[in-house]
Amino acid sequence: MDIQYIGCCFKVNPVQPATDILIAELGEVGFESFVENEDGLNAYILKDHWDPKCLDDIYVLHSGEFEISYDIEEIAQVNWNEEWEKNFHPITVDGRCTVRAPFHSNPNTEYDIVIEPKMSFGTGHHETTHMMIQHLLTLDLKGKEVLDMGCGTGVLAILAEKLGAVNIDAIDIDNWCYLNSLENAERNHCREITVAEGDVSLLGDRDYDVIIANINRNILLQDIPAYAECLRPGGILLLSGFYKEDIPLIDTLCQKLSMTQEGELEQNHWVALKYRRR
User: Fold this and answer.
1) Which residue ranges form the domains of the chain, and what is each CATH number?
2) CA angle 110, 113, 116 (to 5 degrees)
3) Is the pTM of this model over 0.90?
4) Helix, strand, coil percent values for the chain (each to nearest 5)
5) How far is residue 63's CA from residue 235's CA, in Å, rounded to a whole number?
6) Is 88 helix (H, G, I), strand (E, B) or coil?
7) Is 18 helix (H, G, I), strand (E, B) or coil?
8) pLDDT tens for each residue of 75-130
């Protein structure tokens, strides 16, 4: 039997916010797909990337704050589409924007986004993506140039185009996310999105009216100065992927870079901040 993946089945009590914390930490050590369920989470990692000791570094497993147990199994083949069909349900944000899979019926909301999420992050179900959609829905993006950094499935870049943005760059360091964003942009008939594989070094001397970055705290703290360089005066920076207790670190850095906070959303300890460059 050709073993391709290692699967870890985590039973979590209480499920939230422990499951979200677990996803964030497992993503840092190489897990690339997550399927949430009523008991917790199934997480998958390529066998070639698997090291049993990596779980020793997952703080939430050993903090004593939550009851978490897990089983490990070897998996010969995973039908990711089948897994998502069983677990992916459409969501509607603020009654205006729906994120759904191709096998869901059209809800006829103002903005309808169809994605095949596969192993990429960004279905809209996670609090950070949901809040970033909320922020975008409040902006006038007509004719604005936008960067979606850490684009995942491309869902935020797709919404930006539907809101009227032009010359949209969607960048992710993960090859699977890059390919998935290309597929989803095409699926939604997007013509203004350019998808690239890489990191902040790709930005060069480009500049934008709006920058979206839904990543994680450490990457954001590292890359926010580069975003500030690329953000036009009066431009908007939307940040998420971190917890409420991380706000002082993020805010201090943004203030030093001539950006003023104009909005904050919070769901289950996750936050999404809106800044404007002075």
Assistant:
1) 5-78 (3.30.70), 88-277 (3.40.50.150)
2) 165
3) no
4) 35, 35, 30
5) 40
6) coil
7) helix
8) 766 565 566 566 678 899 999 999 998 888 888 899 999 988 665 555 667 788 99
